[in-house]
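W.,

You were right to be curious about this one. When I first looked at the sequence I had no strong expectations either way, so I just let the prediction run and decided to look at it fresh. Below is the sequence, 739 residues in total, followed by the output.
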Amino acid sequence: MNRRSLRYLYAAAGAAACLLSLLALAGCHKKQPLGKPWVHLDLTKEKPFVEATPPGVNENQVYTQRIAQLGAAEVRDMSKVPPDQQQQFPKSSPGEIRVVEETTYSRLKWRVHIDDGSYVSFIPLGYEKPCPSCKFRFGIRDEPGHVKVLYELEAKPLSPTAPKAVEIDLSEYADKDVDLLFQVDGPGAPAPGQLPPSLLWGSPALYSRQPQPAAYKPGRPSILLVGIDTLRADRLGPWGRRPTLTPSIDRLAEESDVWTQAYSTFNATNPSFASIMTGLYGKNHGVYDLHTRLPAGSATLASLLSGAGYQTMAIIAARHLGDHNSGLGQGFAEVTRADEHFAAELGVDQTLDWVAVHCTRPRPFFVWLHLFDPHTPHTPPDPYADGLRPAGPMGLGPVRAWVPFRELGPRGFDEPVLGGNRDLYDGEVAYVDRQVGRLLDGLASRGLLDTTLVALVADHGENLGEHGLLYRHVGLFDTTTHVPLLVRWPGPPRPGRRFDGLVQTIDLFPTLLAAAGLPVPPQDGIDLRRLSPATRTAAADGAGGWGSVRGPRMETAAASSPAVDTFYGSVRAPRMQTAAASSQGADTSYGSVSGQLAAAALAPAALLSTGPAPTTTAPAVPALAGPGGRRAIFAEHSNGFGAMVRTRDYQYIVSRGNTVVFPDGPTLYDLRADPFETHNLAGRGLAAERELAGLLNGWLAQRRPLPGSSAGRAHPHPLSDEDAARLRALGYVREIDAQ
């Protein structure tokens, strides 16, 4: 073994202790200079030089660059999982990241150039196989024979909660070429020919600001669609969560149009994203589960944008949402899919790397980034798991300060089978927000927010104890269908706006196509700008070449103070109509249920589709909706287990075939008196029930078998044993039983 090389790190270990303390206290990261894009150098993709090897071990055995979990392979205490549940839910793992696995008694070197603001980041995950007294060491060599140890830590076994990411400022080495040294020490040399134990470095990377080729400014806006799985609206700051979990999304909302009352069309991932990508309700696209493919040839956002010359990329964080199960890969030139499910940081890194390559090409891009967190199991890394989040939007820079969002301390799973906990769910939301902030800062540093429309939406929500349900998104309550929805239009930062009218996630489809200047095919969505009150038109906004895609400039509409949800201590956005919404000449009695509303809902399907891009005179607003939003929204339950209609004042749900959870039959809630949907008024002879039942039945009967309709061609396909096992691990037992 090359012990001469190793002695540099050992000799510097004592001096490093003081430096480590200073680094921990100071944060050591000065404010980043403007004008240079962030560059992410993923060390799991760059081949290192092997400086030291254990006795009898070849260099190609010293390290592996691969995918691994952000924590232990099994996160639950299996002694708390009943044997029959262990068969139903055999495994529960955290998200996947990229790692460097390195054996003990070895050192890896990456030769890099250090620029202004550079820092190195990694997660000292630990060991999969016992490695007592093993140590992580990281150091810098800036000249021959001179090594400074910047970090060392005794390794621990992989834990359900991953350690905090280490972020080390390298600004003192600016404008130098240096060696990044990653070393793993062990208690004793292994026997000759025996492969020594190893440690895992998670997400090792160098971040820096460097001059880069200018991004191309296309004639059409690029589009980034961020779809977050299982994210409730009331967990985000713009929807009233206090203290906020989401400083980065909060800042995005300050520059965006925010629809506070947006609802999904489904309570499950694949059907919901099928609706978002086609603008169709489930009754018209035919996808109701996690193993029915959207038929080939469907008119999707990707296929239409690709046909218009867009570069297209999908990063799908959950295996069951992959094209083999969903058919949602059609139209994308590139698709990256998780083997199990990605941690959010990996999906964001992949997006940043792809955009860095493609933004200089003379075509706009469309990227769909799916983030699986905060789905179960709830496994945020530290310090999010302990109740801390970044003190503000940190972007791609290191986190310099942390603040609590709850009483500090570790949490165990209160649902041991699925691996769930309300506080850990919030920790996942805070972790995802950090990753969204990294993504947006990466785009902003390249000037791409001036030419890119950013849309953020969730596929569905989650039950966190409401309705007697823990961490299962069953039912069509507000907990499972009320989702965040916002759009940041291309251009420099501008005051955001809030709209409190009812809208649906399918409304993104015509909105994004119209923003790209493309004709919109027949579908069920309505351009969000036609559902939103405005004081002046985009053309009058002086937006230049981007005037056709920007919403009008307007300060946030007046809204009442949020009401506190005393049951969970969180804050729910009020269900109140803003003054802006009520001042439009259209019907303002959105909550009322009337024959006029029923007639509007059952109007010919052509009235429910959006016309061409808004560069021409917009057609008349459909009777079902006005500038204050939709008069009613509709959703269907996964696996065909029911349907729902909701107005501002009432919600009417019909459940069928899901008797394990709910009895068959209707439920009716008066949302003004019962906002948490706890008192069923069905069967009391109320006029609202009769009218809503007629409205829902008529809507369900109004199928679209028009030319090009895909619903009649969507058929479930059998799941492989491997995919069935993965779905069970995520809690989708009914998906397996429904085959």
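Here's what jumped out at me. The CA atoms of residues 271 and 287 lie 5 Å apart. And, maybe more interesting for your project: The longest strand covers residues 198-209.

Coffee later to discuss?

I.
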